[in-house]
């Protein structure tokens, strides 16, 4: 799932969370989820940036610890490459982009 945009990755994660049902994504009741404002894969008036929301979601998923996020092994997760709040496709653009590996608890 490399080379997909962060917003598309969020959309994919929400669809995965709702067993592929876009209707269920639109009806998602979990307003506290970091991805909630971005679940349609479109920018929204969210307090967090797209990458910050992904980082928060991964923190919530990884028992709230940076270590768990760092050690995440779910490389097929749509959010995996963005879990540090950085976009690897923008490597060298404004100093962003790193590679890591780890375990998903959600
Ligand atoms: S906003 Fe969160 S809880 Fe709702 S569908 Fe997306 S990932 Fe799942």
Outline the structure in words.
With 106 residues, the chain is an all-alpha fold. The protein is built from 4 helices and no strands. It has one domain. It is globular. The two termini are 19 Å apart. The C terminus is likely disordered. The chain binds iron/sulfur cluster (SF4). The site of iron/sulfur cluster has 11 residues, from α1.
Figure out the total of helices.
4
Described by strand count, sense and barrel closure, the largest sheet is: none
Give the overall form: globular
Number of domains: 1
Question: How is the quaternary structure best described?
Answer: single chain
Name the beta content range. under 5%
The low-confidence parts are 96-106
- Which whole number gives the mean pLDDT? 86
Distance between the termini: 19 Å
Structure summary, number of beta strands: 0
Radius of gyration: 13 Å
> Strand-and-helix sequence, N→C?
HHHH
Bound molecules: iron/sulfur cluster
Helix and strand composition category = mainly alpha
Task: State the share of residues found in helices, binned by percent.
Answer: 25-40%
In short:
With 106 residues, the protein is mainly α.
Give the key terms:
mainly alpha, binds iron/sulfur cluster, 106 residues, globular
What layout of secondary structure does this protein have?
Layout: H1 6-17, H2 22-26, H3 50-61, H4 66-70
Bound molecules: iron/sulfur cluster (SF4).
